[in-house]
Inverse folding.
């Protein structure tokens, strides 16, 4: 009886922790980058404006969640012509679809034991399932969260008309997020 | 037609380099003037890539041509006034310099602008320099002005060749024409050279 009561108490204390992973705020030094291929050469870009709501507990993946909103017009690749073209109607069409949105639907582990965040990405008005490789590293006072994936731009209709030509602009685009997290 | 040049005419290898490069250079020059006026588009990007690939081909052909020229013997100058021989050689030297300078300034322009350089969509060539806006616009301007200068030198070169062919009626152009044969009447007499 005494044991049961203790167990009950333990459950009451533990339950809130079991239900919630730790919430983090994303520090301004965080980056959300991408790597495309143009005329056989890769180029790197990044989104200067994005918001990420991160709840993560490596020991409780079921309660973890990523919810990321990206201002697609903030893409910068170091080339004035390209940066002017990307938000235009031939690519992101930012006036019609200003935000890209990724939200997790669940987490799993791959064969090597790495954590994979499964979710839906809405980009250019098209929603498709996307999985991110997750590397979570606790740091003094917070954590670093590195996510990586590879998308096909044409899955999301990024590049219309003649810009669908993958001989000049490759279909595959790598996406990498490097987030510096502080506990809320 | 012998591969090597002889005392009266250029060999087929020298003629091949001369005419293939002449066609490539002329085509690429006027092609560039046309593509420059296109509206910004992927088509325009691909046309620029084609222009760059042709220019690189000219550069590669030039290097092969130079190597061949060093191995080949060249026919002696046709008889003529000393100033004309001097002028012809000066124009040839200028053409050689411009044939190298055109692709190199284009490559520099491309590199300084930060564009990739892909050869006929097959492989990429390295940048000659890091991205540099000032250098990019300078190299672009030089590339363009050198083209107009090249055109001027080509007019002198082709004009002189035509003058020899049509007015002097000698062998200067004939010995370089793809299927040309020396005029028997004015060709220097060589035994067994009646081919």
């Amino acid at each position: 009886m005494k044991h049961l009561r203790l167990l009950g108490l333990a459950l009451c204390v533990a339950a809130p922790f079991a239900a919630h992973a730790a919430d983090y705020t994303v520090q301004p030094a965080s980056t959300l980058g991408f790597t495309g291929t143009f005329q056989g050469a890769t180029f790197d870009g990044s989104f200067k404006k994005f918001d990420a709501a991160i709840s993560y507990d490596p020991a409780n993946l079921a309660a973890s969640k990523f919810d990321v909103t990206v201002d697609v017009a903030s893409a910068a690749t170091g080339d004035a012509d390209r940066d002017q073209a990307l938000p235009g109607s031939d690519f992101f069409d930012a006036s019609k679809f200003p935000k890209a949105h990724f939200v997790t639907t669940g987490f799993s582990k791959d064969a090597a034991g790495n954590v994979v965040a499964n979710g839906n990405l809405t980009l250019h008005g098209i929603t498709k399932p996307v999985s991110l490789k997750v590397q979570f590293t606790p740091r003094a006072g917070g954590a670093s969260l590195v996510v990586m994936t590879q998308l096909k731009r044409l899955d999301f209709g990024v590049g219309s008309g003649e810009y669908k030509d993958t001989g000049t602009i490759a279909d595959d685009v790598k996406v990498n997020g490097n987030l510096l997290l502080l506990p809320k | 037609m012998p591969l090597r040049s002889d005392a009266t005419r250029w060999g087929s290898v020298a003629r091949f380099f001369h005419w293939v490069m002449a066609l490539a250079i002329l085509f690429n020059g006027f092609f560039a003037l046309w593509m420059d006026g296109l509206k910004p588009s992927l088509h325009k990007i691909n046309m620029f890539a084609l222009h760059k690939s042709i220019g690189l081909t000219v550069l590669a052909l030039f290097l092969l041509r130079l190597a061949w020229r060093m191995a080949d013997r060249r026919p002696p100058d046709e008889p003529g006034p000393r100033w004309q021989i001097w002028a012809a050689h000066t124009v040839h030297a200028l053409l050689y310099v411009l044939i190298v300078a055109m692709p190199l300034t284009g490559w520099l322009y491309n590199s300084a602008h930060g564009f990739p350089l892909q050869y006929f969509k097959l492989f990429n060539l390295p940048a000659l320099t890091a991205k540099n806006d000032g250098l990019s616009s300078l190299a672009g301007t030089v590339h363009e002005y050198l083209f107009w200068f090249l055109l001027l030198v080509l007019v002198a070169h082709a004009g002189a060749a035509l003058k020899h062919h049509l007015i002097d009626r000698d062998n200067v152009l004939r010995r370089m024409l793809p299927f040309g044969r020396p005029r028997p009447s004015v060709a220097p007499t060589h035994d067994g050279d009646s081919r």
Remarks:
- Chain B has four helices and two strands.
- The interface with chain A takes residues 40-43, 45-46, 49, 114-118, 121, 123-124, 131 of chain B (CB under 8 Å).
